[in-house]
Amino acid sequence: MVSKPKGDQMRRIALAAVCCSVVWWSGQSRASAQPAGWTGPLVVVIGIDGLSIDGVERAKDPQLHRMMEQSAWTLQARGVMPTLSSPNWESAITGAGPEQHGITSNGILGKMSKFEPVCKDAEGHFPTIFEILRTQHPTADIAVFHEWPGFADLLEKSVPNVLQHGGSHEKITAGAMEYWKAHHPALLFVHLDIVDHTGHDSGWGTAAYLKAVAEADKDVGELLDMVKQDPNAGRTYVLLTSDHGGKNRNHGGNSIVEITIPWMIAGPDIVPGQIQSPVYIYDTAATIAWIFSLNTPDCWIGRPAIAAFRSSAISARNGLRTNTSSPGCEPAQRPAIAVAPASAPSSAATNLLGPGHSKE
Questions:
Q1: Distance CA 227, CA 44 (A)
Q2: Tell me, what CATH number does 68's domain have?
Q3: Kindly report the CA angle at 133 between 131 and 138, in degrees rounded to 5?
Q4: Distances in whole angstroms, Cα of residue 313 to Cα of each of 95, 107, 129, 304, 316
Q5: Is 214 exposed, middle or buried (0-12, 13-18, 19+ CB in 10 A)?
Q6: Is 354 inside any structural domain?
Q7: The pTM is what?
Q8: 359 inside domain
Q9: In a domain? residue 32
């Protein structure tokens, strides 16, 4: 049984009152405080660390292929440089790249290089999708379950109702499912690390790597079945992404196999099939924000992948500015929260992963 850490919720509610100027829901103006019982969309994000395009195409992964059949998908999405986990997962949850959020390395030798972000919240953090949702809907339930311990250092720890690291990928999946069934959080993020770990141990594309993809595929199937069998399936989106591929036993370079990632989204108003417009990893947060009709900061560069959605859903969002003639190329609303310009750059390195912890 998982428990809810308390966090500093009262301070964040006060922050929301100051920072949130306009909140939209289905095109209608609405107060930032949410009534009891979340009636909006639900989003489940499955992040599979190190999942390469080759892994999706070659592994025995019927659940990933099942999701593709029900999804708008692309196997040509792009991560960011460097092709390391910390910069890319930060980009996925912040709607921006390393040039904006400032995380440029991955904790190698126990240190993560980080420079001043171009904008920051009251705590000095580049705003993530978790903070954007919390600020505009203070009572929304937000849950993060992560296999890689370092993932927790990429977001505001006091924001989620649950931020849990629980060992193996099976335990992470089981804990996330238990919490979902009990609470139905508005946003559930599940991070799985078995594929990346095996890539470093045995090499990307090896038999062991493909077996690890098949193991993660089982987790995907359990999460898909969880949503399918739930009474709230009709308002639930499932978004799956990776952060990078790999080459031999490493990643971080500038090869196409390292920077190209799978990206899929299923749910109401999604048009199944291959997405023709470009998708970047930082579009993940922007797409989630678009689903929730959230305002986003000017310092985000991600754009919602509206090419994945039915035209009727796009046109129904009267409060959003979208460019239907060029799907996926118009940002969501401005701005989400008050953010301050960064101060003078600092050369000091910040160890976000903890002493002695490295992840290549």
A1: 9
A2: 3.40.720.10
A3: 90
A4: 22, 41, 21, 13, 5
A5: middle
A6: no
A7: 0.81
A8: no
A9: no
